[in-house]
Amino acid sequence: MKPTKGIKILLVDDEPHILQFLEMGLSNEGFEVQTAPDGAIAVEVAVDFKPHVVILDVMMPEMNGFEVVKQMKADGNNVGIIMLTAKDEVEDRVKGLTLGADDYMVKPFSFDELLARIQARLRNQFPDLLGEVTQGPFRIDDRRKEIIYNDKALELSPTEYELLKFMIMNYGIVLSKTLILDRVWGYDFGGEENIVEVYIRSLREKLGDKEHKLIRTLRGVGYRVDLP
After folding, report:
1. In principle, which of 12, 42, 62, 221 could form an S-S bond with 38, CB 3.0–4.6 Å?
2. Domains, the chain, ranges and CATH?
3. HSE value, Cβ hemisphere, 13 Å, CA-based, for 63
4. Which CDD domains does the UniProt record give (predicted)?
């Protein structure tokens, strides 16, 4: 899926080579992109630029990512914030989500994964910008909360819808149970991880995926959607 013109992305990182790489890649995808080398400048830029999505590093001089999240979310602004965290820094991810960040990615990450997460934020927070999204045999209509598979509407519970949408939007990427619980059930979910297996089993039945070729299990790692 190619994003439509007019979707604004603000990149915030104190590493110039990361800013340059992401700015070039996202501009080539059709996004309108602006950059900021630190949190204080990012807050100023956001006032006039009014981004739809902010890609935000946690550790920066002047003002760290947590302070930026606080200020950008303070007035109830509808902006999607994806935080970039160091590997294994679970406390940073929890703190960012608690303050109002919408998603996180662990460095290093692939550009394709970043695109998938941006698209997920747009689908969740700005559905009118994108309309329907088609990925392989799936068509997602977030306004109707409906997923069409091979031209047939699936009968899904609200949680099944959110889980399948999340997996489709991140197809080709291995998704751990922990990540799925964070993104679908919420980071403060206090239940058992096995709930993911139960819902995956239900989705496979509704998709007719008896051989697990569509939703694959990677033992000890997680799940991955493979589209034809």
Report:
1. 62
2. 8-127 (3.40.50.2300), 132-225 (1.10.10.10)
3. 18
4. REC_OmpR, trans_reg_C
